[in-house]
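Worked example 2:
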Amino acid sequence: MINPGCNLIECQNLNYPAIFYANHSIDDNDIIHILYSSFDELTISIIQTKKGYSPYINYTALFNKNYSNSIVFKNTTPLNSFSLIIRRLIKFNDKNDTGHLNKDDNSIESYWLNGLKTTNIIHQDNNTNQPSFQLSLDTMNGLLTIDINYPGESMRDVNFPKLRSTSKCYFLNIALKADNYTLSNTRFALEFYIIQLGIEGTQFSSTRYIDDQYTPGIFNVWQIKSLSSIYSSSMLWKPVVYQSVDRLVEKTTLMEIYDLKNNISLQKSIDQGIFNSFYVQPYVSAFNISFGRAKDGFFAKSNYTFIQFTAGLDILEVDSVKQFVRIALIVSLVLPGLVAFIAVIFIIKHRCSKRNISSYDVIQD
């Protein structure tokens, strides 16, 4: 629901930011709360508490940008939380077609994802009543759409890249469409901030695998996870970028990740939002991703980009190798050795047979 329990006129007015809230019981003891907020920076917060507790939201404080303690869980302390800030969309001119974003590139233009109004929020047509946030890119005749889908159970998306979520995690789908830009080598990137409990920070890893039934041709998966032994959280995705709405395998390219940094300082003039209510001293990690690779002719091929993440309070696991793949590998490794072994036995047996024939005494009549 949007702005639950709010009677202020601002909550009824479409020209103000909003909070979408949902909750789901994951077992007999605990409940997951998820809040999507467009108050200042676009923030997705997922929080785990014991059952019987709900957030108290002080909307007067929120609309006055007094975020500290504006959202509280009275008489309890959250067991775990994870907040993801989608900070900005970056446009840059990849004049050498390297597929790489340079931080000192003077062609960079930033589109900050803050101050989105209720008019920027639509509901997905998937019977979940969950929101899509949309940022209009007027100078490019474009639209950035951010879908958050919390299924509340372990499941795999039916569409590519067919990532898997859990009862403590959500799908994050990001689509970019732009039809009007002046530079043929225009590329795009996104900047993310992660805020979580604990001060151990996060770690990035890239794992190679051979089971490509969910994303044919993509053989690695990226993961950012908490280093805390108490507060688990992670993001997981495959570095594939789709260039069509129907996510065709034939129309894809790759992405790059840059500079995962821990314990960065927030810029108070920019970095404001509901996360300041959940964390007294936010511990922030940051990273960027850019779309495309060298010489791929992207973005101009289709003017469209789609990527998907899963994120939340579980350490998301990489897809395991299927049983038939294991069997095929074992057979492919063992069979040559078995054939060689049989061949050696046959040769030895053949030589022994010859030796026996040559030493045989002919019986004279």
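The radius of gyration is 27 Å. The chain is about 15% helix and 40% strand.
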